[in-house]
Sequence to fold (327 residues):
Amino acid sequence: MHFLKTISLVAVAAMMTGCTSTGGVRRPAGPETVEPEKALVLPPPGGPSIVSVVERKRGNGVEQTISLFTSSSVQGQNFLKAQFLGATGANPGAGNDTYRMIREGDIAREMARSVPGVPMATSATFLQNSYGPFGYASGRSRAGDTCVYAWQQIRSSQSAHTQARNFGMIQIRLRLCDARATERQLLGIVYGYTVTGTFDGDIWNPYGAPPPANPTLGQTGAPIYPDEGGYRPNTMPIGYEPAPAVVRQQRTVAVRRVQPYAAAGAPVSQAPVGPHVPLPNDDTQTNAIERSSEAPAMIQQTARPIGVTVPSPDCIGDAAMTADCRE
Fold:
């Protein structure tokens, strides 16, 4: 009997719960398109424009795929990928991403998916932009397009982690292929992009403590010159679509002078008609036209009206036989 009462109470509670449900529609966690202004990483001014931004929220962060303008025959889309890991509790149902260090095998697989069919060579030169060191690989397709794949991990030093702070991490990937740009021009995008996303709370700061001021400031024997003096290192150019240089060939064009026709009693003079436009197969050296001295002189003709002669009214009938009318 007690067991039957328990079942009845559970059934009543379930019915009451169903009656109090709001019936609202909830969208499951998944990728969604956001406005380009909400991109966590922005390309430099003059660089490739943003086509679309797809965002996926995680339980411990967020990641974005920022599609960029592409002018290349290589399969795939230019993109900037940004992954922010560290914040917790914002999206508990979206799953978490684990911290993964950059490994050579992982980068090779990423390049094979992002730049298919293009042999890529990893650069062994140590490079660093405003956010720290980064690596890149470059290659050229069969059609002559230049491709660059760059990777960067923004994270504070291990010594800062021992202080129970600065645990955030940002992973950035960049894929660029262009039919006209050079490797150095594409690499300038890595130096010029700006990370606009931030973490809530100092504990997730991925940059670490700000660097101290230059100790030579205010000291003697350490002159600082203006920018024109060249005391600052040269920066990479921003943007990779320079305007084509206008090449103008200086060609000698002969001016042809002709003898115009003159009316009776009018003076005859020489005047330039204009530059001679050469034909596509003409030789520049043979374009000059000189008037031969043996050319026949122009024959001056007396101007006379052209048309039908109308007789005078006095020269009609028998009067037409007079001498005045015959003249």
Observations:
- Confidence is low (pLDDT under 50) at residues 250-255, 284-290.
- The chain has five helices and 13 strands.
- The longest helix spans residues 2-19.
